[in-house]
Amino acid sequence: MSDLARSEAGLNVASRAPGGRSGLIAVARVVSLLLILAVWQGAAGAGLADPAFVSTPAGIAQSLWRLLADGELASNLGTTLLEIMIAFAASVVCGIASAVVLDRNDWLNRIISPFLTAFNSMPRIALGPLFILWFGIGIASKVVLAFSLGYFIMLLSTLGGLKNVDRDLLLMSRLFGASGLRLFRHVRLPWALPGIFAGLRLTLVYCSAGAVIGEMIAARSGLGLLVQTFSGRFDVAGVMALILVVAVMVMILTSLMDLAERHLLAWSKGSTDVPG
Amino acid sequence: MHGLSVNFGHVHKALSGVDLTVHRGEFVALIGASGCGKTTLLNAIAGLVPVASGLVMVRNSPPAAGRRDVCYILARDALLPWRSVLGNVEYGLQLSGIACEERRRRAMAYIEKVGLLNHRDFYPAKLSQGMRQRVSLARAFAVGRSVYLMDEPFSALDSQTKLLLHDQLLTLWESSGTTVIFVTHDIGEAITLADRVLVMSKAGTGVVEEIQIDLPRPRSAEALQADTRYHDLYRRAWASLRASTE
User: Fold this and answer.
1) CA A181, CA A169: separation in Å to the nearest integer?
2) Interface contact B92, partner A, CB < 8 A
3) Are A12 and B119 in contact (CB < 8 Å)?
C-alpha cells in the first residue's frame, strides 16, 4: 500500500506550476507596447499618417495631462464610475437571484424564457434615447441602460452554470441527509461559480459600455459626454485619451475580480487526471 | 437491527417477488448479470425508487433517502471538486450535523485510516481514481451509520488498486461492526469481502443461489489469491452466475 501511495504522491509532485517565465513575459509586454507607440509616433512624425485623424501617443498624453490638471477628468470619471457600479451591482444581484428562481421553478422558466430571449435580442443601445426620455438626462437613465445589458448576461451565465449540476453530487448529498438549502449552498452554488465569474467579467464590460454610450446620447456629466464634446471639436487626441481612461478603469476592475476568482476557484486550476 | 426483509415487485418488472434478509453486522455481496436489478434492489433499500408492492424494512422502518442510519456509496466517488480531501470527508459529517471540532477530529482519523494523511489538502482533481475512492470510503465510514449500501464502488479501478481498497474496506468494516450490502459484478471481489454471496437471477426474480463464504477473517485480499478455498468458491459462484443467465 505504501508503495502505491508513494508513487501516487510522486505523480502529484511532478505536476509543477509553470512559473519562472512570468518576469520574461512582463518585459516582453512592455517592449511590445513601447514598439507600437514608437511606430505610431514615428509614422505621424514622418508624415506617413495624418495626426489630425489618428493623433499621436504624445498628443494623447498631453490631452490626458490637461484633463487631469483642470480637474475635468476627476468629476466626469466619478459620475461614470458611479453609474457603472450601481448598474453592475444591480445586474449581479438581480441576475443571480432571478437565475436561482428560474432554475428551481421549471414551469416559470418555461413561461418566461421566450420573453427573456425577446428582450435580450433587442438592440438595447437603440433603446438609449427612450431611456433618456423616460428616466431623464441624469444618471438614472444610464444606470437603466447599463443594467438592461448587464442583467441578462448575469442571468444567462448563472442559469447556465446552475443547469448542469453533477447529478451524483446532488444524489450523494441527499443521501447524506442534505436539505434543499444545503444542496444549494454546498453543491449548486459552488458548481455555478465558474459560470458566474465568466458572467461577472462580461457584465462589467457591458455595464461600462452601456454607461458611456448612455452619456454620449445625453448627459450632464460623465466620460461619454466628454467624448461627445471632444469629437464635436474633432479633438482626436482627447477622444482617444478618454477611451484609454475607460479601458484602464475596466481593466483595473476586472483584475480585482480576477483576484477574487483565483481565490474562490483555486480548486479548478491545474488538475492532473492521473488514472489508477 | 433485526435484519431486513425485502419482498417487492417493481412497476417495470425490474424486480418481482424478491426475498432477501440481511442480518445485523453481516457483509452481503450481491452479484448477477448486468441488468438483473442489483442496483435497483439497492436503490429500493435506500429509498430512492418507490416500491410497487411488497415490503421493505430497514431496521424496523421503511426505507427513506437521507436516513440517519443508512449510508450509500455510489459507483462514482462523487467528491466535491471544490473541497480538499479533508473538506470532503468533513462534508459527510457536516451534513450529519456533527459540530465543527469533532468533525475535524473524526475526518482526520478516517483520512489516516485510508492512508491519505499526506494528501489531506489536495483537491480531488489532483488525486488518482483509487485515492478518490479511498476518500469516498473515509467520508462514508466517518459518519458511522449502521447500514452501508455500496453500488460497485470499485468497478472503475484496476485490479491491483482494487485489492488495496478491498483491504481498506475490510479494515474499516471490521472496526465499525456495520451491516454492508455490496453490489458488484466482480466475483472475486464478492468472495474476498463478503460473509455471504447472493447470486441474482437475470429475470429480476431475486436470489437464485446463496453461497456462504467461510474464509476466516481478518482476510487479506492479496493472500486470498493463493488460497485454494478462494478458488473453489470462485468456481462455484461462476457456475451459479452462468446458470442464472440461462
Assistant:
1) 15
2) yes
3) yes
| Cβ neighbours, 10 Å, residue B85 | 28
pLDDT band at A29 (very low <50, low <70, confident <90, very high): very high
Q: Please state whether beta strands B27-31 and B196-200 pair in parallel, antiparallel, or not at all (unpaired).
A: parallel
Q: Where are the beta strands (DSSP E) in B49-160?
A: 53-56, 70-73, 147-151
Instruction: Give me the residues of chain B with pLDDT under 50, please.
Output: 1-4, 9-12
Whether B158 and chain A come into contact, CB under 8 Å, resolves to yes
Interchain CB contacts (distance < 8 Å): A and B:
96
Count the Cβ atoms, other than its own, within 10 Å of residue A104.
13
Contacts of B99 (CB under 8 A, 6+ apart): none
The pLDDT tens digits for A136-176 are: 999 999 999 999 999 999 999 999 889 889 999 999 998 88
Q: What are phi and psi of B204, to 5 degrees?
A: 75, 25
**Across the interface, do B74 and A268 touch by the CB < 8 Å criterion?**
no
d(CA B86, CA A95): 33
Biggest CA–CA distance in chain A, Å, is 78
What residue in A sits closest to B143 (Cα-Cα)?
A176
Cα distance from N-terminal residue to C-terminal residue, chain A: 13
Q: What's the pLDDT tens digit per position in A191-212?
A: 999 889 999 999 999 999 999 9
Q: Which amino acid is at B216?
A: P
Task: Report CB contact under 8 Å: A8, B130.
Answer: yes
Cell of A120: 435580450
Of B70, B80, B168, the CB nearest to A169: B80
Q: Do the Cβ atoms of B126 and A271 come within 8 Å?
A: yes
Q: Answer whether B153's CB lies under 8 Å from B75's CB.
A: yes
- Dihedral of CA atoms A214, A219, A222, A227 in degrees, nearest 10, equals 70
Single-letter code of the amino acid located at B79: L
Phi-psi label, residue B101: left if phi above 0, alpha if psi -120 to 50, beta otherwise: alpha
Residues B102 and B144: their CA atoms lie apart, in Å, by 13
Cβ–Cβ under 8 Å, residues B83 and B120: no
